[in-house]
Amino acid sequence: MDLRNIAIIAHVDHGKTTLVDELLKQSGAFRENQAVAERAMDSNDLERERGITILAKATSVEWKGHRINIVDTPGHADFGGEVERILSMVDGVVLLVDAAEGPMPQTKFVTSKALALGLRPIVVLNKVDKPDAEPDRALDECFDLFASLGADEDQLDFPHLYASGRSGWADNELDGPRKNLDALFQLVVNHVPKPKQIAKQDDDFRMLATTLGSDPFVGRILTGRVESGKLKVGATVQALSRIGQKIEQFRVTKIRAFRGLAQQDIEEAVAGDIVSLAGMTKATVSDTICALAVEEPLDAQPIDPPTITVTFGINDSPLAGRDGKKVQSRVIRERLLKEAESNVAIKVTDTPGGEAFEVSGRGELQMGVLIENMRREGFELSISRPQVIMREENGQRMEPIEEVTIDVDDEYSGAVIEKITGARKGDMTEMKAAGAGKTRIVAHVPSRGLIGYHGEFLTDTRGTGVLNRVFHSWAPYKGPIPGRRAGVLISMENGQTVAYALWNLEERGKMFLGAQADVYTGMIIGEHSRDNDLEVNPLKGKKLTNVRASGTDDAVRLTTPVTLSLEEAIAYINDDELVEVTPNAIRLRKRYLDPHERKRMSKSS
């Protein structure tokens, strides 16, 4: 069957996964009466809850005698490591651009990776049926983006389509028939070249592993594109590391190919196809699976280095072990190393004491997703404030700078500009009207200045602003950036909070918890209205007497407490504070506790 391998790339929420849904439906991958969930490729629980793609996944469709392998990629910069390694498996990319928003920061990021590999993109202007769509402007901006990224003449001469992924149509003209996606299928077949690996059918078998998975029945599974040769079930192959070191020799027990949303066992893998292999015990991502006669590994696509680091430690609070079953540092270490093995954008290192581990990654969202997954698996953790990774160049200290694109209502633009160019030491590079009473601001801001800013940004814009960020470059260190201005309210007692005490404390600041909540000495229960920390007693009840007077027995009415999400909590804390994460709770506390004090608190609680 005629084969094509493509990846769908786009900024977050521009409609990649929805478009793949329609491609699957119109290619006949589902029965007519088959019940299929919306955004079928987002199979992970967190992906469904958050409405974003986190893991790159492959699928396959058949259309008029052609087999098209499609890779759905994440749209968020924090998961860029998934995109970078996936692009080495494909021969073409479909770049999806929202006709109203135009190219956004993540569009620029993934497109630069695709162009650097020599891939010729197909541009699909999606959501052209939206009232504020401007497809012609979006198309011009795509051309300008390609030119600024150094695209060659073939790449600049890109074909384009007008589409609505949700409605399931794509046409060559804006006023086309709007019936189906045949125009996109036809363009992929005509524009994307056949895998050049097909010509190497008679060579020795080689495959570069790009994703790692597991199956409860067959064990470890590696997925990649066959670069040369053929492979049959039962054959003996070897795994080579990036530097050519032999890792293991194993017998292939399963070969699976993508057929619709499922994987199907096949007897033979051929050059050019994307398949999954089972049977190995040690081989991992970026290793070369090859015939025994092969000595040289395949080149693995380099991955951009991580930009932030977070310390994962054991939960040593007095409430430790009440919710989760996995609390030992050994178990946490095994889980983190397992994550680093399958996610090449994450690095794990031990701290000198061995009780905590430094995890480096791309951003707060990537760390938040990892912590949330571990929390659901029954882990208890203490998490530090994210720290930006610095590096030395010619004796000068360098820090990462991010390009921030902000769409905000005109009336709030002043407050936003003041925040990012003032204390956060950003440089504004562009400001223009975006239509519909909105302003688009583009600025280069140190990564340090953006930690914890998103919540403040939503407050400043009354929840109407949209902020997107992507790594831009390294620049000389810009000096200290002030952290959170407000202090915190710290519990000085162990026990359960009392409504009367919290009611009296409300004039001191915002509360993070309500009545009947477990607290301990050193736990943060709210934000102080001033810039200093304040120790308070949330357990103090009302003194009762026999005397009754008008106005003394008013009902206690508490203000609804502020509930911080995991990412908000991690971004909120200062360097001397920690986030305590358990399966059922997210708590904030001060970092340093005297061991004798901790022991005393454990007994009293």
What does this molecule look like?
The chain has 15 helices and 35 strands. The longest helix has 14 residues, at 135-148. The protein starts with a strand and ends with a helix. Residues 594-605 have low confidence and may be disordered. By secondary structure, it is of the alpha+beta class. Helix 9 (364-376) packs across helix 14 (566-572). The strands form 6 sheets. Strands 18, 19, 20, 21, 22, 28, 30, 32, 33, 34 and 35 form an 11-stranded mixed beta sheet that branches. Strands 12-11-17-8-9-16-13-14 form an 8-stranded antiparallel beta sheet, with no helix packed on it. It has 4 domains: 2-193, P-loop containing nucleotide triphosphate hydrolases (Rossmann fold); 197-290, Translation factors (Elongation Factor Tu (Ef-tu), domain 3); 305-390 and 477-543 and 552-605, Alpha-Beta Plaits; 391-476, Alpha-Beta Plaits (2-Layer Sandwich), CATH 3.30.70.240.
